């Protein structure tokens, strides 16, 4: 069974420490990722999505620290690897598509060199010529002309840059791709095409992909499963269609009712209140102050992420009763 | 228009403007040069006044071209200057100003340009290390040291160094570019002698300027380290060395290179005090002596030359900058 899992994350905890204060940005997160699967992770800003992504690649910077947990990739816990082994694991097993910001490529180095150095750092035994051919092929796969290889990042549009990043992410054919808000800096038209490209290359590789974002529409189109994060915890993990048709966690329900729908005309509902500060989390379930159905138990006890059906998980005391 | 052509035109405009100012400023000063000559002649009891004096004045005016209209004088001055004919030195008549300049130039370039470049290279590298999280912690202990040193004027440090190493310890020579009595020629013993004489002045420049480069580099490096492309470089699994040089330092160096252009331009003018302290026969020493002996043509020549060095070094950096930063060329 474990062969069928691309990445298994168990009770991952990441904290920001300042002085003797500890802020749990990612708190006890557990999930499995299957080959070829696209797992969407959504949540408000500050819910720990990006911290989770960076911690999985061990790119988090102090004051962020991994406080515990494991991430099993290829039978090894990558959180326990030595620095050099980790360096080799990055990109060859686990690659990153950065936020679609304009700034992810080195401004003074040609695209081809930025792609080639990723290959060279991993000693694949390819000649310069083979690497150049490979780069040309990859650029074609993401819909860019080969001439882009000779260009500098400032000569490319935002969408082209993001395509370069996609080509770069699959250059070593990793088994897991982490896409951290891959299209957030692009306009909606380009967003759709870039996302389509990303999904295509991911499917061809049969790589597992984590898509981080807060665009529910994009998730609905791309993800197979959706994980919802709230205040550092995963509160629901469900296949995408069941999530949209029958959300389990009260937060998920509110999220969906805040989305416009073409089928029914209704007043859009917001979620009352705002996400709590991680420094002063409410007792019990972190969502209880905003939850319309909270009970006494919710104020006292932190709910665990429990399996509620064969494919669904939710962290709510009331889920059984609700469903 | 082509970037290079634009830069070249800019360069010539700056040079002609500098030459023009050089022409105007002495003519704005009170008094006239012939009067000064007559004054000197009278002091020696040579002039008798009357017709003879008028004749002398006319002769001098004709000889220096002062009888011609100002625009003719200006044109002649300009063509002479652009041909690098800077006139005769007054104190060392009939020596030409440009000859004295070219004799002094190698010393200034050798001492100041080399120590400035060394300071730039060392300071930038060290500053980059100070911002690099994986560098040994000891690197940052030098920070206060750099800060104090960059606050000390280099001529003061020069005096202290001379006192310690040349006067008290007698390890190194007190001044000059080579031992008196030796004749400059290309052989090893002379070269070693020159290096021995260059150590103290170079050290005083190096020590006082290295902090400037280190602190500047540390600042830009910290900014670059926060850029997204550094996170991506690390995610790619590149080696620390590659990230440090090709991604972080490469980008952090860009503003440093701009400062280098300005620093190299002021090398010659900044050299005056160092060369005076160390009795070094460079451009600064030349200017200092010319000022003391009111050698106007020499002062004018050196000043023009200093402007020229700034213009040339800015031109050179402008021309190589597109190679360093592809975003510049349009």
Describe the fold and architecture:
Chain A is α/β, with parallel strands linked by helices. Chain A is built from 11 helices and 12 strands. Chain A has helices spanning 49-56, 83-92, 111-120, 128-141, 158-169, 188-205, 216-222, 240-245, 250-257, 296-300, 319-322, and strands at 7-18, 21-33, 38-43, 64-73, 76-77, 94-97, 176-180, 208-213, 225-230, 233-239, 306-307, 313-314. Chain A has an 8-stranded mixed sheet, with helices on both faces. The radius of gyration of chain A is 20 Å and the shape is globular. The mean pLDDT of chain A is 88. With 330 residues, chain B is mainly alpha-helical. Chain B has 2 domains: 3-82, no CATH class; 97-324, MetI-like fold (Orthogonal Bundle). Chain B has 13 helices and no strands. The N and C termini of chain B lie close together (9 Å). Classes of the chains: A alpha/beta (323), B mainly alpha (330). The A-B interface holds A 54, 57, 59, 87-92, 95-96, 98-99, 101, 103-109, 117-118, 121-122, 152, 154, 165, 168 and B 227-229, 231-239, 242, 246-247, 250-251, 254, 324-327.
- Overall structural class of chain B, as computed from helix and strand content, comes to mainly alpha
Low-confidence stretches of chain B: none
User: Unreliable stretches of chain A, pLDDT < 50, 5 or more residues?
Assistant: none
How do the SSEs of chain A run, as a string of H and E?
A: EEEHEEHEHHHEHEHEEHHHEEH
Trace the largest sheet of chain A across and list its strands: 6-7-8-3-9-10-12-11
Radius of gyration of chain B: 25 Å
Which quaternary structure do these chains form? heterodimer
Strands of chain B, total number: 0
Gyration radius over CA of chain A: 20 Å
Characterize the overall form of chain A: globular
